[in-house]
Design a protein that fits this description.
heterodimer; A: 350 residues; alpha/beta; Rossmann fold; 4-stranded antiparallel beta sheet; 13 strands; 21% strand; B: Rossmann fold; 8-stranded mixed beta sheet; 9 helices; membrane (chain B); transport (chain B); ATP-binding (chain B); P-loop_NTPase (chain B)
C-alpha cells in the first residue's frame, strides 16, 4: 500500500463558475387527502455549489432530504421553488417540465442499486451502445467498438465482459457498468446516490477509487450522496451536512469532520464506529447532543418550524480562519475565543 | 494450543463448534456453505464472526439454533453447548434450548414483531409460555424488561408501528434476553438502522452484556463495529475461517489478504487521507487450508509464497489491486 497522502481537489476546483449550482431549492410534499392543506417540508432553501472537477459529499441520515435533493437535481422530482444552474444556465426555466436530452448529456446519474438499474434481458454491450446512440456519440462501427472497449477499460473491466449478461457479474462489476454507461455520454457532472451501499464491503473502496480517478483524469464534477461519513471524508473535497431538509454545515471534508460545529454533525461524527478511537462513546455527552438536536425548544432544525429555538432563521457563521470555507448555521454556535474576530456573520451566502 | 482452547477468560467454553460443515444439497449438485469451521465462545465473551454476504456466517448462526431448512444439511462436525450435543437434541429439548439457553436477534428483527399485538402482549407471552408466570407477574417483568433497555414502560400498550425503528430493535433485544439466556446470537443487528441509532443499540448491548453476563456471537460485515465490540473474532470467506484472533490484534495487524481488504474497506475518520485498496473485483481465494498459529492466539490460513512470515503483505499481486494509487 502506498503511503501517499491523497490530495484535495484539482487546483481549479471550486473557483470560477461552478459546474452545478443549486440556489434556494425547496420542495414540499402535500400530505393528507385532496383537500388537505397540510404539507411536509422535504427541502428548505438549499444552496449548494459544485466546482469544476470537485467532489462534494452530501451526508445525512435517512429522512434528512438528501435523496429528495438528488431526485430534484436529476429532474425526477419537480422542486417547489429554487434554481438549478448547470454551467450558469437555469435548467428549471430552460426545460420547464422535464429534463432535456441536453441536460442529460451534461449530468448523469449512478444509482444505489446496480441490480435494479441494468435490464437483465440485455448484454452489457447494449447499455453502453444505447447510451452512445441516444446522445449522438456513436460513430462508425469500428469507432463505436473502440469506444466501448475504452469505456470498459476506464472503469476497470475486461472488454470481453461486453458480451456478458448482468446476472453473470458481481455487484461491484455491475456498478462499474453503471458508471461506464454514465461516462459514455461524456457528462460534466455525475450524481451518485449511495453508489456503494448495496455492494459487498470489500469492493466498495474500489468504486470510490474509480470515482476519484475519473475526477482526476477527466475533470468530472461529482455530487456524492451518502450516509457514510468515513467514505465522504475519504472521497470528497468538501462535505455538506443535511438535516431536516436544510444544509446545516459545510466545509472541507477533513476540516469539517475534525472540527464539527453543529450539534447534529457532532452527533453523526461521534456515532461512527472507529476502532482507532475506541471507548469514545460517552452516554452523557451523547444525551446532551441529542437534546440539542432533537428537542423542539432548543433547535430550529428539528423539522418543526412551529417551535424553533429562535424566531429568526439562523445565519451562517464562518468556522475557523477567514479563508476557511467551513460554515455552520446554528443559533448555538459560539466561535472559539481566539478566532472570535474572524467569526464573520453573513446574512445569506449569495 | 488448539483453536478451541483459545477463549476469553479461564472458564469452560459455553459454545463449542467443531469442524462444522453445512451443505446445500441440490438435485444435480450441492454447495458447501460452511466448510470445517471450528470456534468456541467462553463465558461472558463477545465473539465476532465477520464476512460478506454468502460467506456462510448466517448459516452458522442458523445451525447453532437448529433452524436450517431444506435443502441445507449439516454434513459433518459437532456443536456443543454447555456440554450438551445440540445436533442430537430432540424436539422438546430443542424447545427449551431455544430462547432459554440461546436467543437470537435477526437482521430485520424490528420488523418481526407482530403488528396486531401490543408490545406488552408480545413480551408477556414469553413469560407465560416459556416461564409459566401468571399474567400479572409477566406484566410486571415485561415493564422491568423495557426499563432495562431504556424504553418507558407506558410503551407496553403501544403497537409496533407506533415505535421508531431503533425502539423496536431495542424491544426485540430486550425480548431476546428476557429468559436470561447464556448465549445471545446477533445477526447483523443494526444493519437497517441509521448510524446514530446503531451506536446506541451497540452501547445498549454492551451494557446488558455487562449486567447479565451472557456470551455473544456477533455477526456483521462492518469490521469497525466488530472490532469495537468484540473480544475475539473470526473472519470468514467462502465458508472457511481465514483468520481468528483477539479483535485488537486483527485491527492492528491483520494478516490474511482478505482480512486486510475488509479492514481497508472502512476508511478512518481521523489521520491523513491515504489511499486504500479493497479487494479487486473477481479476486478469489480457493482451497483455503486449515488455520495455522501465526503468533500466540492468532490463527491464519496460510495463503501462498509470501505468507505470514513476510508480515502478510504482497500475497496479492499489485496488478490485481486496481486503483491503488491516484
Amino acid at each position: 500500500m502506498s503511503s501517499t497522502v491523497l490530495g484535495a481537489a484539482a487546483p481549479t476546483a471550486g473557483t470560477g463558475q461552478p459546474a452545478l449550482e443549486i440556489r434556494g431549492l425547496s420542495k414540499t410534499f402535500p400530505i393528507g387527502g385532496l383537500l388537505s392543506r397540510k404539507s411536509v417540508r422535504a427541502l428548505h432553501q438549499v444552496d449548494l455549489s459544485l466546482g469544476r472537477g470537485e467532489i462534494v459529499a452530501l451526508v445525512g441520515e435517512s429522512g434528512s432530504g438528501k435523496s429528495t435533493l438528488a431526485r430534484c437535481v436529476a429532474r425526477l422530482e419537480k422542486p417547489s421553488s429554487g434554481e438549478i444552474l448547470l454551467d450558469g444556465v437555469d435548467v428549471l426555466k430552460r426545460d420547464r417540465f422535464q429534463a432535456s436530452r441536453a441536460y442529460r448529456s451534461q449530468l448523469q446519474m449512478v444509482f444505489q442499486d446496480p441490480f435494479g438499474s441494468l435490464n437483465p434481458a440485455h448484454r452489457i454491450e447494449h447499455f453502453l451502445r444505447r447510451s452512445l446512440a441516444i446522445h449522438g456519440k456513436a460513430g462508425s462501427a469500428a469507432a463505436t467498438q473502440r469506444r466501448l472497449e475504452e469505456l470498459m477499460a476506464t472503469v476497470g473491466l475486461q472488454p470481453d465482459m461486453l458480451n456478458s449478461y448482468p446476472h453473470e457479474l458481481s455487484g461491484g462489476q455491475r456498478q462499474r457498468v453503471a458508471i461506464a454507461r454514465a461516462l459514455a455520454v461524456e457528462p460534466q457532472v455525475i450524481l451518485a446516490d449511495e453508489p456503494t451501499s448495496m455492494l459487498d464491503v470489500s469492493v466498495r473502496i474500489g468504486i470510490l477509487n474509480l470515482m476519484r480517478k475519473l475526477r482526476d483524469e477527466q475533470g468530472i464534477s461529482m455530487l456524492y450522496i451518502t450516509h457514510d461519513l468515513a467514505s465522504a471524508r475519504y472521497l470528497a473535497d468538501r462535505t455538506a451536512v443535511m438535516f431536516a431538509g436544510e444544509l446545516v454545515e459545510e466545509g472541507e471534508s477533513l476540516d469539517l469532520l475534525a472540527n464539527p460545529a453543529h450539534p447534529y454533525t457532532q452527533l453523526l461524527v461521534s456515532a461512527v464506529p472507529d476502532p482507532a478511537r475506541s471507548g469514545s462513546y460517552d452516554p452523557v455527552r451523547r444525551a446532551e447532543l441529542r437534546a440539542a438536536v432533537m428537542s423542539p425548544a432548543s433547535c430550529a432544525f428539528d423539522g418543526d418550524p412551529e417551535q424553533p429555538c429562535s424566531a429568526e432563521q439562523p445565519v451562517r457563521h464562518r468556522v475557523g480562519s477567514p479563508d476557511n470555507r467551513h460554515w455552520v448555521r446554528c443559533h448555538l454556535y459560539r466561535p472559539a475565543a481566539g478566532s472570535a474576530g474572524h467569526a464573520l456573520v453573513e446574512s445569506k451566502v449569495s | 494450543m488448539t483453536i478451541s482452547q483459545v477463549s476469553f477468560g479461564s472458564h469452560e467454553p459455553v459454545l463449542e463448534v467443531k469442524d462444522l460443515t453445512v451443505k446445500y444439497v441440490g438435485d444435480t449438485r450441492s454447495t458447501t456453505a460452511v466448510d470445517r469451521v471450528s470456534f468456541s465462545i467462553g463465558t461472558g465473551e463477545i465473539f465476532g464472526l465477520a464476512g460478506e454476504s454468502g460467506c456462510g456466517k448466517s448459516t452458522i448462526a442458523n445451525s447453532i439454533m437448529r433452524l436450517l431448512k431444506d435443502p441445507a444439511k449439516i454434513a459433518g462436525g459437532s456443536i456443543r453447548f454447555g456440554g450438551k450435543d445440540v445436533l442430537g437434541m430432540g424436539p422438546e429439548e430443542l424447545r427449551r434450548f431455544r430462547w432459554q439457553d440461546v436467543a437470537m436477534v435477526f437482521q430485520s428483527a424490528m420488523n418481526s414483531l407482530n403488528p396486531v399485538l401490543t408490545v406488552g402482549e408480545q413480551i408477556t407471552d414469553i413469560y407465560t409460555t416459556h416461564a409459566g408466570y401468571s399474567r400479572k407477574e409477566s406484566l410486571r417483568r415485561a415493564a422491568e424488561l423495557l426499563e432495562l433497555v431504556r424504553i418507558d414502560p407506558v410503551r407496553l400498550k403501544s403497537y409496533p408501528h407506533q415505535l421508531s425503528g431503533g425502539m423496536r430493535q431495542r424491544a426485540v433485544i430486550a425480548m431476546a434476553v428476557a429468559l436470561k439466556p447464556s448465549l445471545l446470537i446477533l445477526d447483523e443487528p443494526t444493519t437497517a438502522l441509521d448510524v446514530v441509532v446503531q451506536q446506541e443499540i451497540m452501547a445498549q448491548i454492551k451494557e446488558l452484556q455487562h449486567e447479565l453476563g451472557f456470551s455473544v456471537l456477533f455477526i456483521t460485515h462492518d469490521m469497525s463495529l466488530m472490532v469495537e465490540l468484540s473480544h475475539r473474532m473470526a473472519v470468514m470467506y467462502g465458508g472457511r475461517i481465514v483468520e481468528t484472533a483477539k479483535a485488537a490484534d486483527i485491527h492492528t495487524a491483520p494478516q490474511h489478504p482478505y482480512t486486510q481488504a475488509l479492514m481497508g474497506a472502512f476508511p478512518p475518520l481521523t489521520g491523513p487521507r491515504v489511499p486504500l485498496t479493497g479487494l479487486a473485483d473477481g479476486v478469489k481465494f480457493r482451497n483455503i487450508p486449515d488455520l495455522a498459529e501465526a503468533s500466540p492466539g492468532h490463527f491464519v490460513a496460510p495463503f501462498g509464497a509470501t505468507a505470514v512470515a513476510a508480515g502478510g503483505s504482497g500475497a496479492l499481486e499489485a496488478g490485481t489491486l486496481e486503483g491503488a494509487t491516484r
